Amino acid sequence: MQEPPPEPSASVIRAWGRLIRAERIVVGRIEAELKNAGFPSLHWYDVLLELKRGPEGRLTPREIEEAVLFEQYNLSRLLDRMENEGLVRRIPFPGDKRRQLIEITEEGKALQWRMWSVYGAAINRFISAKLTDKEAGQLSALLLKLIQE
Amino acid sequence: MQEPPPEPSASVIRAWGRLIRAERIVVGRIEAELKNAGFPSLHWYDVLLELKRGPEGRLTPREIEEAVLFEQYNLSRLLDRMENEGLVRRIPFPGDKRRQLIEITEEGKALQWRMWSVYGAAINRFISAKLTDKEAGQLSALLLKLIQE
DNA sequence: TCAATCTTAATGCAATTGCATTGAAAACAG
DNA sequence: CTGTTTTCAATGCAATTGCATTAAGATTGA
Question: Which residue is nearest to nucleotide D20 (CA to C1')?
Answer without folding.
Answer: B73
